[in-house]
UniProtKB/TrEMBL annotation:
Coiled coil (residue ranges): none
Source species of the chain: Arachis hypogaea
Protein name (database record): Pectinesterase inhibitor domain-containing protein
Keywords, alphabetical: Disulfide bond, Signal
InterPro entries: Invertase/methylesterase_inhib (IPR035513), PCW_Enzyme_Inhibitor (IPR052421), Pectinesterase_inhib_dom (IPR006501), PMEI_plant (IPR034086)
């Protein structure tokens, strides 16, 4: 009577391993240099991926995607904190309007934070095309804060650290897009 549960649990472990193996068919190991070579800023990308605790030596694509999404989430969150502080401190209404628009571009409801949460969800669902769409969404919405929503919008002369934060977020999101292109097989 005692044997049965342990047999059962061995079977569960075996099935899990089989399942994990088959569903990881796309989860290859790709050299960090090769991934970063395909990004907009390869040296920035190497810095980010090589700062992964435990190192990136032979890390698989899904592990790198998970790590990079975590980085972008933390950067989006600190950017939101910065924007709220900039709104509080603004003394002129143009600046206040600009930062309020940027807050929309970064927050959960319409902005980057919502896209990041969606990327996490898609990664869990192994929908790597979905992760790519979400990461591209992060880049687009952040660019809308920096450059305005349409090309005819004048660019606000922002001398705060927000443009630097925004650029950082865009570059991390770009790394996620490249990792996804390897996961979906667009890049080989
Ligand atoms: C980096 O990209 C260039 C051209 O885009 C290519 O010639 C080179 O082989 C690539 N290097 C690596 C390490 O993939
Ligand atoms: C982005 O997030 C990473 C990881 O939490 C952190 O080390 C880095 O300082 C952040 N950068 C910015 C500009 O927020
Ligand atoms: C807003 O003002 C406070 C108080 O002067 C200051 O500590 C903080 O750094 C300012 N925030 C920004 C983003 O400049």
């Amino acid at each position: 009577m005692d044997i049965k549960p342990s047999l059962l649990s061995s079977l569960v472990v075996l099935l899990f391993l089989l399942f994990a193996h088959s569903s990881n068919a796309t989860n290859k190991i790709v050299e960090v240099n090769k991934i970063c070579n395909a990004t907009l800023n390869p040296s920035f990308c190497s810095k980010i991926l090589n700062s992964k605790p435990g190192g990136t030596n032979r890390a698989d694509l899904i592990t790198l995607a998970k790590y990079t999404i975590g980085v972008v989430r933390s950067n989006v969150t600190s950017t939101i904190r910065l924007i709220k502080s900039l709104i509080r401190n603004s003394t002129n209404s143009d600046a206040k309007d600009h930062y309020q628009l940027c807050l929309k571009h970064f927050d959960y409801e319409e902005g980057a934070l919502g896209e990041v949460v969606y990327a996490e969800k898609m990664l869990k669902a192994k929908d790597y095309q979905g992760v790519n769409v979400a990461a591209s969404g992060v880049m687009a919405t952040v660019e809308g804060c920096v450059s305005g929503d349409s090309p005819s919008d004048p660019v606000f002369p922002d001398h705060s650290s927000l443009p630097k934060y925004a650029e950082y977020v865009e570059q991390v999101a770009d790394i996620i897009c490249v990792i996804c292109n390897y996961l979906t097989g667009i890049y080989k």
